[in-house]
Amino acid sequence: MIASVHGTVLRAGLDQVVVEVGGVGLLVHTTPATAAALRSGQQARLATSLVVREDSLTLYGFADDDERSVFETVQTVSGVGPRLALAMLAVHPPDALRAAVGSGDVLTLTKVPGIGRKGAERLVLELRDKIGVVGAGGAAVAAGQPATAAWQGQVQEALVGLGWSTKQADDAVAAVAGTQPAADTPVAALLKAALQVLGR
User: Fold this and answer.
1) 23: left (phi over 0), alpha (psi -120 to 50) or beta
2) Which of 4, 5, 95, 117 is the most exposed place for a label (fewest CB within 10 A)?
3) Which InterPro entries does the record cross-reference, listed alphabetically (predicted)?
4) pLDDT-based confidence at 190, cuts 50/70/90?
């Protein structure tokens, strides 16, 4: 188990980063908020969870141990794998997930792509006694590469990768574009705005 990585950020994308540890560049899948808080060249420490499959080793990274704990706990529910668990954290921070599960807020949980009403009810039933109580979590600060003319395609691709349909992603990008974002708005911030549109 790789519990954490600490090193220089070689590349920060919309939902993944490459961290150099001991001369080796490790590809780490993250939430958009975590990726947005990192910049190339800076030192970073990420709590991590290694998912081992027959044909792959995939490393998932988180801003703190609490986020990793929630990621691993939600996967104890039948039908929830690492991609869906990461999508849950991309839409809702740990405390929001705890609050939704604790209060049985099925509607909030179904805002995550890939989770329907029955899936949300199963999450509430199986996680209510496991996921803990709402704590004092911190929000990641949005920062990232400057937006370019290609930001719409980048955001659309990231949303589809997180599980939304192409049409949902296109509609969210169109909604964000309609707000006339500033030319220097980071792509990660635009992705976060699109996630907020989809979460309504």
Assistant:
1) left
2) 117
3) DNA_helicase_Holl-junc_RuvA_I, Hlx-hairpin-Hlx_DNA-bd_motif, NA-bd_OB-fold, RuvA, RuvA_2-like, RuvA_C, RuvA_C_sf
4) confident
